[in-house]
Amino acid sequence: MTRKTLADLAALCGAVLEGDGSVEISGPAALGEAGPDQVSFLAHPKYAEQLATTAAAAVLVGTGVTEVPAGLNILRHADPGSAFTNIVLAFSPPPDRAPVGIHPTAVVHESAQVADGASIGPLCSIGAQATVNAGVVLRSGVHLGAGAKIGSNSELHAGVVIYPGVSVGADCLIHAGTVLGSDGFGFEPCAEGWAKVPQCGTVEIGDSVEIGANCAIDRGRFGPTRIGSGSKLDNLVHVAHNVQVGEHALLIAQVGVAGSSRVGNGAILAGQVGLSGHLEVGDGARVGAASTIFKDIPAGEDWFGFPAEPRTAALRRMARQRRLGDVMERLREHEARLAAVEEAQKSAGSQT
């Protein structure tokens, strides 16, 4: 097991050590779970009280953290999150390096082009005229349809399905079970029920895109569905036909984007956001978790809620909703008083 001293870790991540540099560390752990030979970090101010109770040998904190228990070794860094990432990597096992070449159980069409230096794993299937560039890794059971293209140094994990004609850029990472290029959901009513609308487009994935597990990105009805370079999709994201996602956008778990909508450069859709069809989320806009979008969102704005609206308006609406219980109680009191007055007036009238 790899062990490193606190002095080693300070040098590794560029932190300032306050304490005993000779202490040996066996690995990283969360504040509440760390043992006496492990290092942890303060991820958020709300966990600061755990500094007093943690059993960790050392804790990595930000430069603004001033109150630390006596006797606790401290690693101090302006960006503790990225510094701790370097520490985690230092204790992580080396990455699994896929062997170069084509596994004997893989099926590769004679017209497919597989570059030298690519790795084609067990039970992969590569269709006619497909292109696999240098440095590509296809883990077990990946399927590439006819004419599919995978850019240099991209890695596709087990069970990924790339439909015919779909292109994936360079340096992409696609996790297990994801499907790129399945038919968009298009049906028209007819006498027999529903007539399928042909989906004749494709999917284009830019460079340095990461797509999580079990995502589905549908091909366009005509033309491409696009994911721009540098964008990151979490697990279980669905992108419908002809959607255009810009560069460096974030689509977090269970986001659903309906057909022909646009998500701008650098936009963020938090978990479970639903975007209706033919809408636009502007560059740099941010949408809060579980929001449902029924109208365009201008660039740079923060929206959330059901239906989604600008942040200030949403906060005001939430404040009003919280007061509804008191308002209803006061309304019932006024109704009771009014009923009593009306009853008294009826009684007075009957006596005269």
Task: Explain what this protein looks like in three dimensions.
17% of the residues lie in helices and 29% in strands. With 352 residues, the chain is an alpha/beta fold. The strands form 6 sheets. It has a 12-stranded mixed sheet with strand order 8-11-14-17-20-25-28-31-34-37-39-40. The protein has a 10-stranded parallel sheet with strand order 9-12-15-18-21-26-29-32-35-38, with no helix packed on it. The chain has a 9-stranded parallel sheet with strand order 10-13-16-19-24-27-30-33-36, with no helix packed on it. The longest helix has 41 residues, at 311-351. The chain is flat and about 105 Å long. The model has no long low-confidence stretch (mean pLDDT 95).
CATH class division of the largest domain: Mainly Beta
Shape: flat
The number of helical segments is 3
Our measurement of the CA-to-CA distance between the termini, rounded to an integer number of angstroms, reads 100 Å
Number of domains: 2
Uncertain runs are none
CATH topology of the largest domain: UDP N-Acetylglucosamine Acyltransferase, domain 1
Relevant CATH superfamily of the largest domain: Hexapeptide repeat proteins
Number of strands: 40
Helix content, binned percent: 10-25%
* CATH architecture label of the largest domain: 3 Solenoid
Q: Provide the residue-averaged pLDDT.
A: 95
Largest sheet: 12 strands, mixed
Class derived from helix and strand content: alpha/beta
**Radius of gyration over all CA atoms, rounded:** 29 Å
- List the strand order in the largest sheet: 8-11-14-17-20-25-28-31-34-37-39-40
Indicate the proportion of strand residues.
Answer: 25-35%
